[in-house]
C-alpha cells in the first residue's frame, strides 16, 4: 500500500512537467527548491558539499529530483541537518534500499528521500488545500 501511495504521489507531482538536468554543488539548488516548496531552512554551518549530477521534474505541487550515483548517505545527512531524524525510516522495501520521510514543521509538506538502483530520489509534495464539494 505504501509503495502504491509513493508511486501515485510521484506521478501526481511530475504530471506533464519537463525534465531539466544539472550538475555541481547540489546544496544551493536543493535549498532553493525546498524553500520554494514551503520548507524553512535555517542557516546551518558545516553542511557537507554535495557534488552531483541530477535531473528534476517539478510543477506547482512539488518535484521529483533524481541524483545520480551513490549519494544517499550525503543527501540523508543534509536533510537530517535541517529536519532532524526522519518521521519514517525504512532500511529496505521491495523497490528501494533505504527510505526516509521528512515533514515541514510549519506546513504539511513532505519529502521522501530514498536510495534507488541508480542513485537517490527526493520527492517533495506541497500541502494540498482541501477542496469542498457543494451538495
Number of helical segments? 3
Strand order of the largest sheet: 1-2-3-7-6-5-4
What about the largest sheet? Answer: 7 strands, antiparallel
Strand content: 25-35%
* Rounded average pLDDT: 76
Secondary structure category: alpha+beta
The beta-strand count equals: 7
Low-pLDDT runs of 5+ residues are 1-14
**Termini Cα gap:** 31 Å
The H-and-E topology, N to C, reads as HEHEEHEEEE
Radius of gyration: 15 Å
Walk me through the topology.
Layout: H1 2-14, E1 19-25, H2 26-36, E2 51-59, E3 62-68, H3 72-83, E4 88-90, E5 99-103, E6 110-115, E7 119-125
Antiparallel strand pairs: 1-2, 2-3, 3-7, 4-5, 5-6, 6-7
Which short descriptors sum up this protein?
seven-stranded antiparallel β-sheet, 27% helix, globular, alpha+beta, 3 helices, 33% strand, 135 residues, 7 strands
